[in-house]
Amino acid sequence: MWKIIGWTAGIVFGLLLAVGLSGWAYVESLDLEAEPRGNLAATATDLAFVRDGVRQQRGRVLAVLSSTARYDQDRRKGGYELTEISRAYWVFTANGYEVDLASPRGGTPPQTLDDGLVDADYAFLNDPAAQAKLADTIPLAEVDPSDYDAVYFVGGKGAMFDFPGNADIARIVRDIAPRGVVGAVCHGPAALLDITLADGRPLLRGRRVTGFTTAEEEFLIKEARTVFPFLLQESLARQSAAFVEGPMYLDNTVVDGRLVTGQNPWSTWSVAEAMVRALGHEPVARDITAEEVSVELLATYHAAGLETALAMKRAGPRADKLLLLMHALVAAMQGHLHEAWELQRLARI
After folding, report:
1. Do 327 and 300 have their domain in common?
2. Suppose 69 and one of 110, 118, 265, 330 were both cysteines; which one would form an S-S bond, judging by CB atoms 3.0 to 4.6 Å apart?
């Protein structure tokens, strides 16, 4: 979602202005060059939870990616978010599920590739089987939903344009929802809008859901209301019993029976693992990433304050400092200067 190089400069400059920090001494104290980066050569064998995962075949999961490459009169890049498929792909694989990739048009869907990738992302990019599936996704019209135990809708801005109202998506969900698991992350829940089940009941009626929030959307794209055909939070809220909004850019996964939705890219791991639980299995144990550590620290900070978060950071595994600083900059840009100061302190300790 954010490009690391550009944001690094913005983070440092923005914090210096916003919270009164000054001088290269502060920049040097961040020691951003020492921050761990993902292994560009990683493969599935480097992922312990995959290498030591479930050996027997438990079933199949269909992952759906957007085919919409551009939007806003071709001025903006759409497509799907790599991290929202790569991480889920390995969770499903590690837990005994074969993953097939599909898209509205089939073939190779357009990809949005962020910086800040972790080993699981590089392993997906380096995996011949995964890349062969990605290069030739199944057209949705050719999908037989009876082959699958679950369907997972991958986010990315493109999903706002070719998921809602798609007759094949409705057909697939209508088949799987009564007997299997339906999951979606970030903009992926756009696929769930306006779907009526075989018994005539709207899919989302009486359900608790989440997805990319209006606050998150408008922070990144000020003119979101004119760029997109609708705002996801508002549409989901109208059709569901409750839209569950979590803090901006932190993990928030909502489980309502066998319907699993996640708020943003940082919810991908928990959405996939919640789907495995909904399928009846406890997910294979997995070492959490430094990014996930930071997300937990940020959630603790918002719930319990700085001192509790600092104590958690001192006692816990290494966090992703850059992600903490990004949240400090977000707070500063929103005018929350005290929060920005505290978050940069959390990053530096």
Report:
1. yes
2. 110
Q: State the residue range of the domain holding 66.
A: 44-278
Q: End of a domain among 241, 257, 278?
A: 278
Distances in whole angstroms, Cα of residue 267 to Cα of each of 227, 241, 306, 307:
24, 21, 23, 25
Cα distances (angstroms) measured from residue 325 to each of 15, 49, 107, 149, 294:
9, 29, 38, 40, 10
Q: pTM for the full model? A: 0.93
SS3 state at 150? strand
Q: Are residues 208 and 274 part of one domain?
A: yes
Question: 66 with 193, same domain?
Answer: yes
pLDDT digits (tens, 9 = 90+) for 231-286: 999 999 999 999 999 999 999 999 999 999 999 999 999 999 999 999 999 999 99
Digit-coded pLDDT (tens) for 222-236: 999 999 999 999 999
